[in-house]
Amino acid sequence: MRKTDYMMHQLKSMSMAPPLIDPTKAETILQIVPCPPISTSDHLGWAGIQVQHHCPPAWENAEHSMNQHFVVVHHADQTAQAERTIDGRQQKEQLDNGQVVILPATVSHKVRWNRQGNFTVLMLDPLHLARTAYESVDSDRFELIPQFAMFDPLIYQIGLVLKAEVESGVNNRLYVDSLTTMLSAHLLQRYSVWKQILPSYQGGLPKHQLRLILDLIDTYLTEELSLETLAVALQMSPLRFMRLFKQSTGLTPHQYVQRQRVEKGKRFYRRSYSFGQKD
Predict the structure, then answer these.
(1) I want to staple 130 with a disulfide (CB 3.0 to 4.6 A). Which of 106, 140, 151, 215 is the partner?
(2) What is the pLDDT of residues 143-174, one digit of tens each?
(3) Looking at residue 58, which CATH number applies to its domain?
(4) What share of the chain in percent tops pLDDT 70?
């Protein structure tokens, strides 16, 4: 092929490529679904993930791709029929409650539904997923594999919890960070091309590291802690820290912080009650 012919072919391919959409923006998500989300996490300032809950009417969108990894969790009350095309492959789907669709960033996609939908979208920042991969196995060379509608109980439960967090309006940063890290690790383990086994991180934290992190949590117990802040204090990845911490304490970082806050509240109440009795 002559150089001029090759350049013309490349230009033609680029012009035929579907538009790349940023679904995290209110003005561009309407290119994918026909109405705004019922609820969204965009005002909560979560790191690496945005969550939206949608209940759109029957619709059909044009072929597009997105700059975020798109994980769709369905909450259908009734089975819906859909025709979906991912990266040129078409499939008819029976969408039931609990089913999940995985749409990697930059992969072309379009879908047509025959009835009102009810689903939560988990939008993962590709840089966040690449960082999890690099910190886990020292490699960010992976490719997320698209998945038509299928059942994945773990993703479904994470989706339900994140939806509830959005609806509560409470910015529980540490909890959301833990769920995002868990989701990222699961996607890399189950739906990526390396199929490399992530380290199990056995043995828990060394005693001096555990004491350091428990003291840090106690010092900043009334402030908004993030998983990354705790992990950086021990110079390790969030995924590794989360797993070793649970092995050492039997609790996730979020569960431990919540328990300590409850205990602190009880101690405050007992002191207040004691002072009241003396009066």
Answers:
(1) 140
(2) 899 999 999 999 999 999 999 999 998 888 99
(3) 2.60.120.10
(4) 85
